[in-house]
């Protein structure tokens, strides 16, 4: 999500820094807190639904999939029309504000897009090139797996299509660490911005993130519980404090800034001493290949 915040920083960062300097000199703006309070972000519909209403929506969506010939459709190893697929159907319903018809269209579009672009094969790609490091599982918190990501290198911004395939591959790998047959599966993204450079606020970065945003919004429900931004430089924290009033509440609820490193994070409970391993991962703390069967990692 930090990648999606970049265009806003491009627009507001110079003015924000100037305003912050003037406000601090006049004693108007208080220093940014080193430990902002963490406010849990859970995807909720615009109007609260009773459990029975949610269940009815799931049943209607399942029937709608059967009517359009998707009775054997699978996504991330989960059979969508089976009872075990109900939690995943809820994710798509939440993404479309519990509109059964919109969720059905989203699912159809997602399955078609994945098939046409070979998304399931992205996990077999060993490397996407310079400036595109693999995300890593660094532990588990109260909200699920902790996925550590770093900013792209300059070379990653020269090809929008390659950039998007890299980030989609990392998204797929994170999703496959989840137990998608349990209620509200979600992971926590830990974004290390210690390598933040001017080119991360460039036109090329905006082009890459714009296309990535389009794809995520069209073809993915929300699996992100929180975004923890670590190693934030003072300028980033200052700009963020001034941008907060104009950012969507859903984004504000999910983001927490931390000036310290990733190994200082505590999310709900202590991170396990040993890095979390997904099935098929033989290297500690490193991403290898996404889980293929969609089963729950223990």
In short:
Helix content is 40%, strand content 11%. The protein is of the alpha/beta class. Helix 1 (2-25) packs across helix 6 (203-219).
Averaged pLDDT: 77
Q: What is the terminal-to-terminal distance? A: 27 Å
The fraction of residues assigned to DSSP E strands is 5-15%
Report the order of strands and helices.
Answer: HHEEHHEEHEHEHHE
User: Given the helix and strand composition, which structural class is it?
Assistant: alpha/beta
Q: Radius of gyration from the CA trace?
A: 20 Å
Give the overall shape: globular
Percent helix: 25-40%
Instruction: Note the main sheet.
Output: 5 strands, mixed
DSSP summary, beta strand count = 7
Largest sheet: spatial strand order: 3-4-5-6-7
Low-pLDDT regions: 10-42, 266-295
Count the DSSP helices. 8
Produce the secondary structure layout.
Layout: H1 2-25, H2 51-67, E1 74-75, E2 78-79, H3 86-95, H4 100-117, E3 136-141, E4 144-150, H5 160-175, E5 187-192, H6 203-219, E6 224-230, H7 234-243, H8 249-254, E7 255-258
Parallel strand pairs: 4-5, 5-6, 6-7
Antiparallel strand pairs: 1-2, 3-4
Helix pairs in contact: 1-6, 1-7, 2-3, 2-4, 3-4, 5-6
Feature tags:
single chain, 8 helices, 7 strands, 5-stranded mixed sheet, globular, alpha/beta, 298 residues, two-stranded antiparallel ribbon
What does this structure look like?
By secondary structure, the chain is α/β, with parallel strands linked by helices. The protein is globular, with a radius of gyration of 20 Å. The longest helix is centred in the N-terminal third of the chain and has 24 residues, at 2-25. β1 and β2 form a beta hairpin. It has helices at residues 2-25, 51-67, 86-95, 100-117, 160-175, 203-219, 234-243, 249-254; strands spanning 74-75, 78-79, 136-141, 144-150, 187-192, 224-230, 255-258. α2 packs across α4 and α5 packs across α6. 40% of the residues lie in helices and 11% in strands. A five-stranded mixed sheet has the order 3-4-5-6-7. A two-stranded antiparallel sheet has the order 1-2. It is built from eight helices and seven strands. Mean pLDDT is 77; it is low at 10-42 and 266-295.
